[in-house]
Structure formats: structure tokens, C-alpha cells
User: Fold these one by one.
Assistant:
Number 1:
Amino acid sequence: MSTDKRSLSGSRKVKLRYTLRGGFDFDTMGHSRYHELRKFVKKGNDFCKELGNIMQERVELELLYAKTMSKLSVKLMKAAQKGVGSIQKAWLVIGKEMDADGQAHRCIANSLEDDIVKPLKNLQETHCRIKKTVECNVSKTKKCMNKWRTDERRSKKESFTVARENEKVQDMTSDASYSILTSNANLIKDATKLENKKRKLEESVKKSYTEYYTYCVRTARAKLEWEMAVNDAEKNFMTLEEERLLRLKEYAHHVSQTYQQFVPKISQLSSRLSEPTYECDVSQDFAIITDTVNQYDEDLSVQVLPDFYPEHTNLAMNKKRRISALTKILQLVRQDLDRERRSKKGLDTLANAMHHHASSGLKHDDSHKNVYEKLHHVSPEHDFFIPILHRLSLSGPARASGAPVHDSDCSVTSYNWIFLIGKPMICTG
């Protein structure tokens, strides 16, 4: 199809070549075809340049993604190695596969850069260089043709002027009055001048015709050179466009193949992750944690009792002030102990009533939960005051003060007591 277009254009220009020169503008010859092709080539060049920039940004983005995934993979693997169990193992595998994902994207970046970005840049630069050379050649030949065309028009104008003058003189010499004028002896001198002017004009006309013809021939030759330059430019532009389209098709096909090669890698990555994720066993991992924690059993029932200055008989203090201070401390402890006993008794009654309602089919609410939580905390608080009271009762100054000590106040259910400042631990059972 392209060959037919070229031959058609050539035949059209052959017809134009033999058109009469009256007022015809050479600049319109071949204008549409050449300039349209020139526009296509320019648009194609601009598209290739923009496409190259876009693909370069894509390569940089893929490399940045690969680099970031590699860093995240290292962080995740480092964090997952600190744990135990199947779930931690699954996340360790995920960390490794994150690096594999990054490597896959790095391969995409390298493939796009080597097979598309660099060749596309070379193609764009080569086409731009050829386009510039072709346009320069057309512009040069056109400039030469226009120069000869200008000289031709100037010569034509001069030739027409000389021809008109010559025709006037010729008409004058051929007129009947001229023969009468030459018969007069006094006017012979003027007739001689007119005859000389006639001969000079005849020579000028002949010379102007020759000069004008020469310029016409040179203009025609320059026009043929310009036509050849335009034809060559059209052929080059057609070749450039055909090559550009073929290359772009190859690049598009390569992008499609890159994605086709990338999909199996992601599928393999997914299949490698399926096994460790399916093997995650929460109960087994929790059992490992429980066994590990149970190896470090700690008795949290140990109470740290307050240690008052008046209790220490080896420290300097007035006896009356010591007895008075211990008596006041005992009163504070008894008050708190009585308060806790009343609270415990009330909570026991309320809990029994709630238990009775629950057995009747009523649902538990948040108030039930709060009552049981308070009852759970009341017993340790109640038992906290008993060893304090017992210890203060055992001190000599407290007994000397005559403060009564009841056995019921000192009854404790299996509690450990540890005293401050090196006092021994007292255990009752």
C-alpha cells in the first residue's frame, strides 16, 4: 500500500512539473504529503520520548519496591526468629518470601530497562538524528530553489520591460511617417539615433530571453533537486514510522511476556506460603508458652507487712510514747479489720442471693460480675490486716499497755508473712 501511495504522489508531481509558470507557487507542491508525514514522525518521536521516561520511572519504582521489600524482609525475619512455635515459623517463611517477591520485582526492573528503556532511547535518538538530517536537506534544496525562482522572476520582469520597449521602437520604425522623417536632411541625425536604439533593444531582448531561459532551467533543476529531496524525505519518514511501529509492537509484546513470567513466580510464592500457614497450630503454640511459663512458678501470696518504728525495742524511744503509738496503731488496724469483715459478710450474703437467682434461670449481668470481683479482693485484704494485728500483739510494749488480744483476731487461713528489716518469715497453717 505504501508503494502505491508513493507512485501516485510521483505521478501527480510529474503533472505539476509541466504546468505553465504563470503565478504558480512552488511552495504548495508536495506540501501536504511531506508535512503530514513530518507531523506523524514528530508525534511518534515525542511519544517514544515520553514512553521512555515513563518506563524509566517504572523501573525506578520497581527497584525501590524491591529494595524496600528486602529491608522489610530482614526486619521481619529478625523479629520472627525471637519467637517459638508454628505461627512464628510461618511468619519467618513469610519474611523470606517477601525477599523473594522483591527479587521478582527486581528482575522485572532489569528486564524492562535492558529490553525496553535503553533500546527505546536509542531508537528515539536515532530517529531524531535522521529526521533532522532529512529536514535539513529538504530545507536546503528548497532555499536554493526559491533563490533561483526569485532570480527567474526578476529576469522575467526585465525581459518583459525590454520587450515592450523594443515593440514600441519597432512600431515606430515601421510606420509610414518614419520614411518621411528619414527623407528630410535635417532629421537624419534623429533617425540614426532611433535606428541605433532599435539595434540595442533587439540585442537586449535577445539577451534577456537568454538570461530568463537560463534562470528557468536553473529553477527547474533546483526544483527537481527539491522534489528528489522531498521524495527521499517521504521515503525516510515512512521507513522511520514503520520501524517505530514495529519496535513499539515488540516492546508491548515484551511487557506482556514480562507479566506472564511474573505471575508463575507469585503463584510459586503463594504455594510455598500455604504449607507453613496451614501448619499453624494455636493450641500447640499456647501449650509451649504455658510449659515455659510454668517452669518459673512464683508464690505471689507473700505479703509485705508494715514495719513501725515503735516495734523496735532496740531503737531509742520513750516507753510511754512507744506504748501510746502502738496502741493507736492497733486501734487503726482493728478498725480496718472490722470494716473488712462487715464488707465481706455483706458481699457473701449478696453473692448467695445472686446464686439463688441464677439457679432460678435468671441471667448474669455486669453487677454480678462486679460483686464476685469485690468478694475475691475482700478476702486477701481481710487476711492482710490479721498478721499485722498478730505481730503488733506479740510485741512486748503492746502487751505492757494492757491492750486485749483475741485469738479470733489472729486466726489466718494458710498465709505467708514476710517482715521488713530482716525480720523472719512466719508461716501458719
Number 2:
Amino acid sequence: MFLSIVARPSLVPLTLPQVSAVLSEAMSGDMVAVWEVPMPDGIHRVEFQHGTASGKRVIIVDDKEVLRRDWMFRLVGEEVFHLGNTRCTIRVDPSGGFAYEYSLLVDGMSLPKFIEAKSKTCCTWLVQLPDNMYRVVLDKETLDVWANGEKLEVAGEFVEDGTETHFNLGSVPALIKAVTSCNKREGLIYSLIVNNKIIPPAED
């Protein structure tokens, strides 16, 4: 099941959860959908413009235009772009009359399914420090650590009860500790420690 937006000539604003496409009262012209896609390097904003008269399609990622097609005779179909190495597809489907539905697929999955799958392979924390707010993401598959969209230099070491991955948030030392949960289903438990304090995981 795809989360979608139905676009009508009047572009009546719709209210949907943050993870789905949303329309803003401030939107005008051919802007029909906006999605927020969480990735290890940050949360990316994807905007889609669709001219239902001209067939124009424009994809904007983080305020940068990544695709433009003018004068498309076929008003429905798919457009492909990438967020890093991840393939994304915007689908335009008819919804009866002169209305259309817009769906975003990320890595072949609907956005909610992608977020659910990513939550199993990534850990995310929000850390407020005097100099900045940091969004720290650990990719459990690659063991890469990201902070505010930047991949960090890390140093790993084995300790008595697991492993520690050390890095800096600005000038503040931090580490991610991994210990076994003694539960095959849960696997390892990861904790972020900054200034000797355990940081709670970010809420979905």
C-alpha cells in the first residue's frame, strides 16, 4: 500500500503524517507533493512539481533541482532519481477524473516500509551540546557513524563486555558502545555516550 497524495485542480491542502507526502497551504503553482526521507546522512526533503496541463515534471531535493521534464504528453508514469546510492521513484497514477495520486518509493519500498526497514539497520540519537544540536546515526551494517550529514572519523576497540566506537562531536569526545543482548532476536544493543552520559535513542 502506497502513501499517496491526490492532486486536484484546486490543490486543496491535505494533512498527513510527517513520513507521508504533505501539502502546505503555502504551496502554489505546480507543486503537488513533499516528502521527508530519513537517511544516514540526514533527512532529505523531496519536492515534486507536476503540471497537469503541460505534463511538466520537476523533482527538487534539498532545494536543488535534480530532474526536469517539460511538455510530457503522458501525464502518468514514473520518474527515477537517487538519494546518494539509493534509488527512488516517484509514481504518478490516475485517481479518477482529473485527479492524480503521487507515491514515493525508496529502495523499492513505500516510504513507511523503508523507514521501518531502516530503523532495523540504523540507530539514531539527538544530542544537544553547547555549540550545536547533533543528529548522530550509526549504520549497523557498515558501522559508519554520521553526524548532521557528515561521515565521521572513528576509532574502534574491543572492550571486556563488547566494542566501543570513538569519535568527536565538535570538540566533545563521544562513543557508541555495543554489547550483546543475550537475545538472538535483539542482537547487539547500541548506546551513545557523551560526557559520560547515556543519550536516549531518538523517537521515530
